[in-house]
Amino acid sequence: MTDTQPLESSSIKHHIYLGLGSNVGDRRANLLAALTAFPPRLDILARSPVYQTDPWGYLDQDDFLNQVVKVGTDLSPHELLSFLKEIEQRLGRVKRFKNGPREIDIDILFIDDAVIEKEGLRIPHPHLAERAFVLVPLNDIAPKFVHPVFNKTINQLLSELDPEPLEKIEVEAS
Question: Among 23, 27, 121, 147, which residue has the fewest nearby CB atoms (within 10 Å)?
């Protein structure tokens, strides 16, 4: 282990990448509240900068703030999904409609190099390779991570995507 690698708890069995987004209310506070709710179930190992991005899918809504984090946990994939949905609910997420406004959205992007296709859980996230608002912050913290389905690094996937305007608004995560 080098000095730059984070110390990891012996309880970590899985390394997970999560995408966070918010475009309702105090967007920065919503992202921070989600991160604050992770411990002790999730150990935060790395955080990307926060980006302001255009909405995706349904365009008639406010811009999003997006961030990607790497976490470690001993939760199973379904336990992780339930835990994240509980956080979203506690933070006031209201289900409006597909691709609609969100107080907080926490998506599981990757769990290790697993490929999971079960009711309610698809890993890797099925649309992440199409979305700059996911790939740009993911590339900041894991450019060499290999997508287990496409067998390409995050950096390679990003280079194949048509550029979207993303504004980095927080260089260093607080």
Answer: 121
